[in-house]
Description:
single chain, alpha+beta, globular
Amino acid sequence: MKRHTASWVRVVERAARLSQTGDMSGLGSLLTGAVRVALGLALLILLGFILNDCASTPPQQRVASFNIENFPKHGRQAQGAFAHIERLRAGAVGVQEIIAPERFRREARARLGPSWDFVWSSPISLQRVGVLYDTALFRLVEAREHRQTVTDRGARPALEAVLRPIGDGEGAPLLRVVVLHLKAGGDHAETRRRQLEALRPVLKELLATGDRVVLLGDFNSTGEQDRRLLARLSADLGMSWGSRGLACTSYWDRRDGCLGSPLDHVLSWEPPRRVYVGGACAEVGCEPGPSCPIYCEEVSDHCPVVIDLR
């Protein structure tokens, strides 16, 4: 920061000299350089604000969703996936597409620490959903499966992890993390509608407890019909659709190139402090070009979505 500030002072001093001598071409070139310096300084300030904001959110107030494609799809995946989870600094992570849950729990404890534990759904489907959480921050009160979302063949149940933050008294509100993985495919919008409508009374019941309720996961919201449904559901239940503005949370490898798509979402009982995306979606962006980032091969075709609670 000091180096960029000193550069800016030198630019101003030189501009004053060129103005006095009437060297307009030199002044123009100098101003172009000055713009670059100013932009660099602005980016450093912005990055400082972002990093400070991330560091200031306690892990107990941060929850994430992460579809870890067909875990373990190969031997390298665990290293990349858990490295991204560690960077999130979240106390609880709802995950999808876990094929080997016991191995996932072992990898979590080996890579994140022995205080981490994992609960997951029953083997109705090959791909499980689950909640990974740090027992140093939360005590698991209960894990409940909601099979109302199993409306069609191949549909998966939702899983609710009821967590009590360590340090909170018995009367304090609990954190209820509900993770789901809706039916994939552009031609299955009606199935997804049935799944969410089936889950509606469950969510209404959970919200009535006065606890903090977070619904997250891979909604596979491929079209406007899905988004209208999410908007209506969140409005009817009085929940905040925090991920609504995310440009992409996953990648679609198409014949005409790689395309980012916002398939993963998070809804919460009250407006969050902020919601953002991690992984390649944050590092590369939503239009990576003719091929998808190497992240998709090494880790997943989805990116983690993070919610900072108030």
